[in-house]
Amino acid sequence: MDFNMKKLASDAGIFFTRAVQFTEEKFGQAERTELDAHFENLLARADSTKNWTEKILRQTEVLLQPNPSARVEEFLYEKLDRKVPSRVTNGELLAQYMAEAASELGPTTPYGKTLIKVAEAEKRLGAAERDFIHTASINFLTPLRNFLEGDWKTISKERRLLQNRRLDLDACKARLKKAKAAEAKATCEGDTVPDFQETRPRNYILSASASATLDDTSCPPSWAEWKEEYPGGWRTPCFFLLPLNPSVTRARGCLSLPKDRKLWNDEVDKAEQELRVAQTEFDRQAEVTRLLLEGISSTHVNHLRCLHEFVESQTTYYAQCYRHMLDLQKQLGSSQGAIFPGTFVGTTEPASPPLSSTSPTTAAATMPVGPSVAGLAPPGEAALRLEEVTPPASGTRKARVLYDYEAADSSELALLADELITVYSLPGMDPDWLIGERGNKKGKVPVTYLELLS
Length: 454
Hints:
Elements: H1 5-26, H2 37-64, H3 68-79, H4 90-105, H5 110-188, E1 204-206, H6 207-210, H7 223-229, E2 241-243, H8 257-294, H9 296-335, H10 360-366, E3 397-401, E4 420-424, E5 433-438, E6 441-446, E7 450-452
Antiparallel strand pairs: 1-2, 3-4, 3-7, 4-5, 5-6
Helix pairs in contact: 2-5, 4-5, 5-8, 5-9
């Protein structure tokens, strides 16, 4: 294991320095480089996209799988990179219980026959639910997860790098500002001793410590030598800060004013050079981050397409459920009509058709009722004698057919989607049915297949 103690200490020092600088910025004790308004808007937009994507993802998972234990199990299998075991849906489980109950209670009894028919319908509903869950998971949940686990992690990484580059840039700005202030102060006060600790606190040591590396026989020059070398004047020896680098070979006790100024000029030049480098790195990282943030628009387009696919799959699922329940309603209505005339087993109100602005049942109940017709019997008891049915003097209405309907017998009227027919109700009829007329043809039509027009 290659363990570099110097690198570890350097990284720890940089982390601590950035943490202190960030804290000072939060408390308003340090200057901060502000990003432009467009960049800030991109950041806010990206954060909102991430937050709402997480919420939509979690709630969609709840919709598809209401059982929290099952969701945890699927999550563990996904993290372990193992195939999720097949699980029966609630509808399929209910169908299994009903079929077993019918087998034990007697499949030939009216209750047993009804259980078998309902079990078959629930089994078809469970299969439709399974297909919907599978389709929604692939077309909707998977793209959302890919965004959160892929693109967003990349964006977060580049944002952290940009934050570090900004902190480095602000540190270089503060260093240059201090160096220029100290240079100006040294120019005004000739006896000022250079203090590099304010401008470059790291990697610098006292020259007295550096003198330990020198020869024991070395000695400072005499005053006469100093006066001859610096005719402008001399000062008493003093200790000050010098950079620790290979060029340091001899510790000086004092400097004249011109050389003090030269050291300050070098310090300012070095700070300016570091600032230029930090600014270049910051601009480069800002450009990379900006391109990633602008890619959020493409993410929205992709999520929009996935949302359309999710709606389509959900629409298909509910349409299948509606057809299955209509078939079940017809089966139970025809088989149980002799036992429960004029009613639908298991409910007291007929189902309302989708995409209809008015309730057919309510409309049928409020329609004027025509005169009684002899021989008219409820569905399932006797065939309707259509030749004896006459429309009432008032109370007929127009209706638009929502779905194709195939007549079960001669008493019913076959329907085609989007066609207009005339409908009316007669006393003693099942409220789920109306009499429909189209030209010379007439017959019973189901209310749930119609949209009554005012």
